From TrEMBL:
Keywords: Cell membrane, Membrane, Transmembrane, Transmembrane helix
Source organism phylogeny: Bacteria, Pseudomonadati, Pseudomonadota, Alphaproteobacteria, Hyphomicrobiales
Record's protein name: Major facilitator superfamily protein
Keyword tRNA processing assigned: no
GO cellular component, as recorded: plasma membrane
Native species: Mesorhizobium plurifarium
GO molecular function: transmembrane transporter activity
Length: 394
């Protein structure tokens, strides 16, 4: 047995390092705290709007600034900082996020809110990298990624319910953000069970590894898919209103969609090894495009409900396969570390790009734009497959 074979046997499911189950769970939880806002934005930002703290346009700026900051924060920590002293880094980031949430609760102007959520986004992105850095070191990165999205979505569902039923009705948006800050502080205990130093991945010339046609097309495919979801989700309520569906019903659809996301993530975790990633991404992209076209066609009540549930299911079902796509594109796994950034940029840019197509109260072009981005993600996957075959990749 060679030295490399011996190391592989010793590490088992890990390319480098050998974290315990508790350490893995802790890292996934810390990363999940960084993404809690994705499920809580409808509750917290909706409360800011209803209380008159921001206008509709200002609300969009607040949401977009935070999404872009999360993407930047995750990319900076994953690409530029060594995976050392992760317990201290997790602690500092959690405290910073707690302070940003308190700042948000007491911010007195839209500009202050944008500043607070930008700071929060940078900290949240760093926390996401705590999880994704460890996931990238696993031989079963797709499955661990499935566990990650399942955990974060379950946490979002539970906290969204608590905020909607108790914190926000009693203390308004400020109470919701304070509660989110408390979650950050409580998570400090978990931060000290994260692996302190992650073993190094081969990162020589890491930027060169990403600046290749396979890696770029893979990340662009992921970006376009999440543009589809971001565009539709941001305008789901006005799209529903255009076709006679009231806001309260759309709110129920959003809650049900979160539950569908949990089911989608759990299903992907079970079946990820049995379905080829190219087949999965292609089928899901086509389903996403069809769903968007249905939204643009003036759907009835039942069809609208069905589309909301389907979109929720496929959103997280696709994530393990996107991780496999990124790993196939770059075996050093540098591209895999940028998957969260590609997803979050897509979620942030999708609504902004779609908003340029809105004409008065006519939102029909928004789902049409979403259908185009979903098909673009499939087309980019096709480009990736052609290039990979020429290079002899599987």
């Amino acid at each position: 047995m060679t030295a490399s074979q011996a190391a592989q046997a010793e590490n088992g499911d890990w390319l480098v390092g050998n974290p315990t189950g508790l350490q893995l769970a802790s890292a996934l939880w810390v990363g999940s705290v960084g993404l809690l806002i994705l499920g809580l934005q409808p509750v917290l930002l909706g409360a800011l709007y209803s209380e008159g703290h921001v206008t509709g346009d200002e609300l969009a700026l607040v949401a977009t600034a935070e999404m872009i900051a999360i993407a930047i924060g995750s990319a900076i920590v994953a690409m530029l900082l060594p995976a050392r002293n992760m317990r201290w880094k997790s602690t500092v980031l959690l405290v910073l996020l707690a302070l940003a949430n308190v700042w948000t609760a007491y911010a007195g102007s839209p500009n202050a809110l944008i500043g607070a959520r930008t700071l929060a986004g940078l900290a949240e992105g760093g926390l996401v990298a705590v999880a994704t850095e460890l996931i990238a070191r696993s031989r079963r990165a797709e499955r661990i990624g499935g566990y990650f999205v399942t955990l974060q979505t379950l946490a979002q569902c539970a906290l969204a319910l608590i905020l909607a039923l108790y914190a926000v009705p009693r203390a308004g948006s400020a109470g919701g953000f304070i509660a989110l800050g408390v979650v950050c502080l409580l998570s400090l205990a978990v931060a000290w069970t994260v692996p302190d130093d992650y073993a190094d991945l081969p990162k020589e010339e890491q930027f060169a590894n990403v600046a290749t046609v396979p890696a770029i097309t893979a990340l662009l495919s992921i970006f376009c898919y999440f543009m589809f979801f971001g565009a539709v989700w941001a305008f789901l309520e006005p799209i529903g209103a255009q076709f006679g569906i009231d806001g309260r019903t759309v709110g129920l659809m959003v809650s049900a969609s979160l539950a569908a996301q949990v089911i989608g993530a759990m299903t992907a975790t079970i079946f990820e090894a049995r379905i080829d990633y190219r087949f999965a991404i292609t089928i899901i992209g086509i389903v996403a495009a069809i769903s968007s076209v249905l939204l643009a066609s003036g759907p009835g009540f039942s069809v609208f409900w069905a589309v909301a549930l389907v979109m929720g299911f496929i959103l997280l079902f696709i994530v393990p396969y996107q991780i496999r796509l990124a790993i196939t594109a770059d075996e050093t796994r540098t591209a895999a570390l940028l998957v969260p950034a590609a997803q979050l940029f897509g979620l942030a840019i999708g609504p902004v790009a779609a908003s340029l197509l809105i004409e008065g109260d006519n939102f029909r072009l928004v789902p049409e734009f979403a259908a185009a981005t979903a098909l673009a993600s499939v087309l980019l996957l096709g480009v990736f497959v052609l290039v990979a075959r020429r290079r002899g990749q599987p």
